[in-house]
């Protein structure tokens, strides 16, 4: 049921993107709101060969996870990032600590829709986010607290956004094969039966795409996401052990 719902949602997404592409052909330019990584990949695959409207997937800075689908008539020219994105700095007292979830939750409490906000980057100095330009003023004037922590929000240049640095916890182990279910067992410390259940119920994505195949071969640099458990990346595949098992090195996010 969950997989069928995902297909329906993807069909609706592609239909909307088709509308934007047609608008771009007529008016020169059209852009979506922020898409998830999976949505961006689906849109990119669907529109990769279209010639009358060129697609660019852009999140306001290099390496952004949440991006906008920007369609352009090739005869129209280029666009300015500042017309599509506003970057905001979020400052709070140094003695307080806020995480990504704290900031996102406080934004949602203001009635802000998730698709109007791009990446939220948290570092030791505070946080920053990217949003639709028409939302910038509202956030500056109304986003004054996250829980009990007072905030001061101001506009910054897109080139002033902090560099996202995600620390990886490294796991080195051996697996009987490079099947998805086997790699999940090592990465998330679950049984083979549990790994298969997670895959077959549509909770596992490989490179942002839901995968229902337990026997899918996992390759180096594959990003594995398990809803409710987290994300991992297969960093390296080594040689074989004496028992014929493959050595692998996995990076776990957020641990």
Could you give a quick summary of the protein structure above?
This protein is an alpha+beta fold. It has helices at residues 2-27, 37-47, 100-109, 136-142, 180-188, 192-200; strands at 29-35, 54-58, 67-72, 86-91, 117-123, 126-131, 145-146, 149-150, 152-156, 168-175, 204-206, 209-210, 223-226, 230-240, 246-253. A hairpin with an 8-residue loop joins strand 2 and strand 3.
List keywords for this structure.
alpha+beta, Ribosomal Protein S8, Chain: A, domain 1, Alpha-Beta Plaits, Structural Genomics Hypothetical 15.5 Kd Protein In mrcA-pckA Intergenic Region, Chain A, 3 domains, about 260 residues, 4-stranded antiparallel β-sheet
- The total count of helices amounts to 6
What's the CATH H-level superfamily name of the largest domain?
Answer: RNA-binding S4 domain
Query: Given the C-alpha coordinates, what overall shape results?
Result: globular
Q: Which CATH first-tier class of the largest domain would you pick?
A: Alpha Beta
Rg estimate, integer Å: 21 Å
CATH architecture of the largest domain: Roll
Q: What's the pLDDT, averaged over the residues?
A: 90
- Model regions low in confidence, pLDDT < 50 over at least 5 residues: none
């Amino acid at each position: 049921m969950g997989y069928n719902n995902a297909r329906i949602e993807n069909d609706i997404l592609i239909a909307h993107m088709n509308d934007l592409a047609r608008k771009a052909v007529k008016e020169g330019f059209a852009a979506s709101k922020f898409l998830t990584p999976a949505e961006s990949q689906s849109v990119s695959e669907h529109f990769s060969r279209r010639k009358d409207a060129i697609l660019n997937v852009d999140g306001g800075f290099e390496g952004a996870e949440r991006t906008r689908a920007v369609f352009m008539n090739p005869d129209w020219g280029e666009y300015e990032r500042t017309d599509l994105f506003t970057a905001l700095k979020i400052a709070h007292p140094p003695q307080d600590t806020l995480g990504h979830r704290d900031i996102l939750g406080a934004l949602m409490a203001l009635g802000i829709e998730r698709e109007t906000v791009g990446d939220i980057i948290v570092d030791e100095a505070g946080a920053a986010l990217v949003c639709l330009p028409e939302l910038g003023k509202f956030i500056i004037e109304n986003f004054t607290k996250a829980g009990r922590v007072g905030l001061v929000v101001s506009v910054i240049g897109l080139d002033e956004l902090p560099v996202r640095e995600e620390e990886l916890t490294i796991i080195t182990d051996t697996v009987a094969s490079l099947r998805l279910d086997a790699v999940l067992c090592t990465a998330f410390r679950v049984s083979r039966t549990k790994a298969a259940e997670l895959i077959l119920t549509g909770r596992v994505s490989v490179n942002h795409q839901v995968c229902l195949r337990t026997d899918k071969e996992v390759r180096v640099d594959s990003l594995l996401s398990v809803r409710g458990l987290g994300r991992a990346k297969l960093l390296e595949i080594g040689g074989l052990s004496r028992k014929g098992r493959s050595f692998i090195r996995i990076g776990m996010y957020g641990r």
